[in-house]
């Protein structure tokens, strides 16, 4: 099974630029084209939060129009820029988001080789995220239901300190409690996150956790507790997670036009010198 992960698309109203600089719609369109050109094609597409920039229903409609060429099922979770009600309305046809629950948390069972558990770390009106006791209890109970099912956990805010000061200040509350839950549930293969707009890897409760690059702008790499809040137009990207023979392998795909591919060996099979 091949799973594509896209995160932090930050779609605005048509014609608007994020931070008066970034054409997030055009950059997501390019990402979609790269995704459609993949061979083999992904079986599933995950969007791990900050789908839109201000949580407006019209932004979600614009997002959906850009994603429309994707034929695979799309699974979404909220980030701090999202709005629960607007997201629920926009993606209600997916059949997995709860229709009336306070939080947009869900488990998708039996449809794929991996169980997919989606978490809601949103605090309305704030940049930081939280897993409160209610959300943590739900996660613990949900994982306990299927202890032998290999599981992906999706969440927007990463449950670890990254070292990028301004992002850690809007990090996740409840991460110690989350780590304790991870220690109890060895079936969790990988924790997939967004929020950081770049690739970062950590261990949380003995389980691997990854943040994914954005198809738009990237948070500046500045490992400093006093790092200013800045972004850079580094190469955009997305991730591919390949479940093969009971193991999960992750690749980072870079979006853009680059020279190549060039051969390593000549026509006689000799290394080109």
What does this structure look like?
The chain has 273 residues and is of the alpha/beta class. The protein has one domain (2-254): Purple Acid Phosphatase, chain A, domain 2, CATH 3.60.21. The protein has 6 helices and 15 strands. It has helices at residues 24-36, 57-67, 84-90, 133-145, 165-168, 175-184; strands spanning 2-6, 44-48, 73-77, 106-108, 115-118, 129-130, 151-154, 172-173, 188-193, 200-204, 207-211, 218-219, 231-232, 237-244, 247-254. Strands 4-5-7-9-11-10 form a 6-stranded mixed β-sheet. The protein has a 5-stranded mixed β-sheet with strand order 3-2-1-14-15, with no helix packed on it. α1 packs parallel to α2 and α2 (57-67) runs parallel beside α3 (84-90). The longest helix has 13 residues, at 24-36. The protein is globular. 42% of the residues are buried.
The overall average pLDDT, rounded, is 97
Low-confidence stretches: none
End-to-end Cα distance: 38 Å
CA radius of gyration is 19 Å
CATH fold annotation: Purple Acid Phosphatase, chain A, domain 2
Q: Can you name the CATH architecture?
A: 4-Layer Sandwich
SSE map:
Layout: E1 2-6, H1 24-36, E2 44-48, H2 57-67, E3 73-77, H3 84-90, E4 106-108, E5 115-118, E6 129-130, H4 133-145, E7 151-154, H5 165-168, E8 172-173, H6 175-184, E9 188-193, E10 200-204, E11 207-211, E12 218-219, E13 231-232, E14 237-244, E15 247-254
Parallel strand pairs: 1-2, 2-3, 5-7, 6-8, 7-9, 9-11
Antiparallel strand pairs: 1-14, 4-5, 10-11, 12-13, 14-15
Helix pairs in contact: 1-2, 2-3
């Amino acid at each position: 099974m091949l799973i594509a992960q896209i995160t932090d698309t930050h779609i605005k109203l048509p014609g608007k630029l994020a931070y008066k600089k970034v054409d997030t719609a055009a950059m997501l369109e390019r990402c979609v084209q790269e995704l459609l050109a993949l061979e083999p094609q992904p079986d599933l597409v995950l969007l791990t939060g900050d789908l839109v920039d201000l949580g407006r229903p019209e932004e979600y409609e614009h997002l959906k129009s850009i994603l429309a060429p994707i034929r695979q099922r799309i699974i979404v979770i909220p980030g701090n820029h999202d709005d629960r009600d607007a997201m629920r309305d926009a993606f209600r046809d997916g059949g997995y988001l709860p229709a009336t629950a306070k939080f947009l948390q869900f488990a998708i069972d039996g449809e794929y080789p991996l169980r997919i558990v989606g978490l809601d770390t949103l605090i309305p009106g704030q940049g930081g995220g939280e897993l409160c006791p209610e959300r943590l209890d739900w996660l613990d109970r949900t994982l306990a239901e299927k202890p032998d099912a290999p599981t992906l956990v999706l969440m927007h805010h990463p449950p670890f300190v990254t070292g990028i000061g301004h992002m850690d200040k809007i990090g996740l509350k409840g991460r110690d409690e989350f780590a304790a839950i991870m220690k109890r549930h060895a079936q969790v293969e990988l924790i997939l996150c967004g929020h950081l707009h770049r690739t970062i890897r950590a261990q949380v409760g003995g389980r691997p956790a990854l943040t994914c690059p954005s198809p738009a702008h990237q948070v500046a790499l500045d490992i400093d507790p006093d790092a200013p809040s800045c972004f850079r137009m580094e190469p955009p990207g997305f991730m591919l997670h390949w479940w093969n023979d009971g193991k999960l392998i992750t690749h980072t795909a870079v979006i853009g036009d680059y020279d190549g591919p060039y051969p390593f060996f000549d026509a006689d099979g000799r290394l080109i010198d």
